[in-house]
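Sequence, please.
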C-alpha cells in the first residue's frame, strides 16, 4: 500500500485551519468526532465539523462520533507535540501546564467534561508508541481490550454528556428516504433543468444528513427541497418508436395456436404496453421497461401442440436399433432408401426440438413428419447380408448388371480372383435369369430385386450346380480354393457360420 504522508498539525495550525469546538454554544447537542491517522496510529478528537472534514480530505479516516459533550462543564484542554505529531487531552490544569514545560504546545479548551460524571471516558497509555500513545473511549470493552494487550490503564480522564440532557432528537429517516428516491431517478428521463434542480437538492440534503449537528428544522427543510424537486421533474424527449413496432408485432401473433397461459400473458403485456405508449407523461425508462416486457413475453410463447406420437416413433426406432445390435446404419441398406429414411429422421428430430416454441411447427407439420418417418423406415431395403455373401464367394459379381454400383463399391477384389470368376460367369448368368423368369420377371439392375426375389437356398444350389458342371481342375490351386469354398456351403447354418447374418430392425408402429 502506498504510504501517504499526512500533514502534521503544526502545518495545519500554520495555515489557520484548526477550528476546534470550544464551547460549541450554538449547538444543542455537541458531537465529539473521532478521526484516525493510519500512518501514525493517532486518534484525534474534535467538535469542529470543518476540522474533521479537512482532516478526512488529507487522508484521515472518519470513525463517527466518539461521544457527546455537554454545552458547559469542566474544560478539557488540548495540547500538541510538534516532534511526534501527537495530541493530548486533559482537564487537569496542572497536567496541562506541566506538559507545556516539556515542549508541548497548548491549544486551549477543546470541549467540556460533564459534571454529572455518569458517562466516564477512559484513558489508556501505550509506552511504546511515539504518536497515538493515548487512547480515549467511553467503551469499557475497547478500554479493557487495550489493557489486555499491554496498554497502561490511566482510569477515567473525563466524562461524556448524559444522553438524558439532550434537548433535541433529530429524525433523519424521511430525509434519507427522499435521498434514496432521488438517486433512483434516471437523468435521461427528464429535462436537464428540472433534473439539475433535483441534483442540487440531493447534494444539499446529503450534507445535512451527514451533519451530526444538524437541527430538525434543517433536516425538514432539506427533505421538503428534495420532495419539491421530485414533484417538479419534467419528462424529457421520449422515443416510443421501438415500443410501437413491438406492439404491432405482438398484435399480429395468432393467439389461438399458443397455450392458454402464454397467450393470456401476451394479451396482458400488450395492454400494459399500450397504456404506457398512450401516456404523454411516460418516461423513457417506463417505455423501455414495457418494450423489454413485450420481448420477454413473446419469447415465452408456447405453441399448443402434442408431439407425443412423433416422440414415441423416435423412441421405438432407438429401441429397435438396440435390440438388433445397432444395425440401423447406412451400410446395411440400399443407398436411395437409406437417404430417404435418414432425411426423414433428421427432419423429425428438428421438428420435435422446435415443437411448442416455433410457431411454424404446427400439429399438422408434426403429424406429417411422424408419418413420413414411419413410411421411410418401412421402405428401407436391406442389402448387407447379400453384400457379405458377395464379398465371401465373389459369385454375385458374375452377373454384374444385377449388382448395384453402391454394392460394388463395398467389394475389394484382386485380378487373380476376377480371373477365376470369369470362368463361370456365363454359366451363372443363365441360372440367375431362370430364377427371375420363374416368377415371370426380367432381371434388372435394382438390388431390391435380388433381396426380395432370390431365395438364398435356391441361389446356393444354383451356384453349386453351375460350378460343378463347369469346374476345370486344370486351374491353379488358388482358383480351385475359391471355387471349393463355395462348394462346401450346403445349408443355411453353414452359410451363417461363414457369413454372419445381420438382425434387421423391425417395428410394429401400432403397438404401444
Amino acid at each position: 500500500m502506498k504510504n501517504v504522508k499526512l500533514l502534521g498539525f503544526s502545518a495545519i495550525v500554520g495555515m489557520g485551519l484548526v477550528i476546534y469546538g470550544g464551547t460549541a454554544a450554538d449547538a444543542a447537542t455537541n458531537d465529539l468526532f473521532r478521526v484516525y491517522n493510519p500512518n501514525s496510529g493517532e486518534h484525534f478528537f474534535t467538535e469542529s465539523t470543518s476540522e474533521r472534514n479537512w482532516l478526512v480530505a488529507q487522508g484521515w479516516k472518519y470513525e463517527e462520533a466518539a461521544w457527546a459533550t455537554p454545552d458547559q462543564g469542566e474544560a478539557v484542554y488540548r495540547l500538541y507535540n510538534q516532534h511526534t505529531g501527537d495530541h493530548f487531552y486533559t482537564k487537569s490544569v496542572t497536567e496541562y501546564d506541566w506538559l507545556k514545560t516539556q515542549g508541548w504546545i497548548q491549544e486551549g479548551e477543546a470541549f467540556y467534561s460533564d459534571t454529572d460524571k455518569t458517562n466516564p471516558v477512559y484513558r489508556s497509555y501505550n509506552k511504546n508508541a511515539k504518536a497515538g500513545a493515548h487512547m480515549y473511549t467511553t467503551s469499557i470493552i475497547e478500554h479493557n481490550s487495550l489493557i489486555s494487550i499491554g496498554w497502561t490503564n490511566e482510569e477515567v480522564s473525563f466524562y461524556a454528556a448524559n444522553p438524558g440532557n439532550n434537548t433535541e432528537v433529530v429524525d433523519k429517516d424521511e430525509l434519507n428516504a427522499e435521498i434514496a428516491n432521488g438517486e433512483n431517478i434516471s437523468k435521461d428521463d427528464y429535462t436537464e433543468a428540472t433534473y439539475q434542480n433535483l441534483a442540487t437538492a440531493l447534494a444539499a440534503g446529503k450534507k445535512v444528513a451527514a451533519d451530526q449537528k444538524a437541527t430538525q428544522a434543517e433536516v425538514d427543510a432539506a427533505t421538503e427541497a428534495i420532495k419539491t424537486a421530485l414533484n417538479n421533474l419534467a419528462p424529457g424527449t421520449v422515443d416510443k418508436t421501438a415500443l410501437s413496432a413491438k406492439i404491432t408485432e405482438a398484435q399480429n401473433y395468432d393467439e389461438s395456436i399458443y397455450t392458454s397461459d402464454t397467450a393470456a400473458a401476451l394479451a396482458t403485456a400488450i395492454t400494459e404496453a399500450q397504456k404506457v405508449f398512450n401516456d404523454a407523461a411516460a418516461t423513457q425508462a417506463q417505455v423501455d421497461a414495457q418494450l423489454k416486457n413485450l420481448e420477454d413475453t413473446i419469447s415465452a410463447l408456447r405453441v399448443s401442440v402434442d408431439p407425443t406420437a412423433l416422440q414415441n416413433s423416435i423412441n421405438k426406432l432407438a429401441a429397435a436399433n438396440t435390440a438388433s445390435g445397432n444395425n440401423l446404419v447406412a451400410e446395411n441398406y440400399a443407398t436411395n432408401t437409406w437417404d430417404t429414411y435418414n432425411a426423414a429422421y433428421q427432419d423429425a428430430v428438428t421438428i420435435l426440438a422446435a415443437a411448442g416454441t416455433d410457431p411454424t411447427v404446427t400439429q399438422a407439420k408434426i403429424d406429417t413428419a411422424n408419418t413420413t418417418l414411419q413410411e421411410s423406415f418401412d421402405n428401407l431395403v436391406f442389402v448387407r447380408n447379400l453384400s457379405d455373401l458377395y464379398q465371401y464367394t465373389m459369385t454375385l459379381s458374375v452377373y454384374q448388371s444385377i449388382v448395384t454400383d453402391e454394392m460394388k463399391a463395398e467389394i475389394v477384389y484382386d485380378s487373380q480372383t476376377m480371373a477365376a470368376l470369369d470362368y463361370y460367369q456365363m454359366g451363372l448368368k443363365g441360372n440367375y435369369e431362370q430364377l427371375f423368369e420363374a416368377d415371370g420377371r426380367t432381371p434388372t439392375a435394382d438390388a431390391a430385386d435380388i433381396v426380395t426375389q432370390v431365395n438364398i437356398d435356391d441361389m446356393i444350389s444354383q451356384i453349386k450346380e453351375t460350378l460343378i458342371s463347369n469346374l476345370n481342375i486344370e486351374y491353379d490351386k488358388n482358383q480351385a480354393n475359391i471355387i471349393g469354398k463355395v462348394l462346401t456351403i450346403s445349408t443355411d447354418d453353414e452359410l451363417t457360420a461363414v457369413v454372419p447374418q445381420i438382425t434387421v430392425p423391425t417395428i410394429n408402429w401400432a403397438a404401444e
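The longest helix spans residues 415-437.
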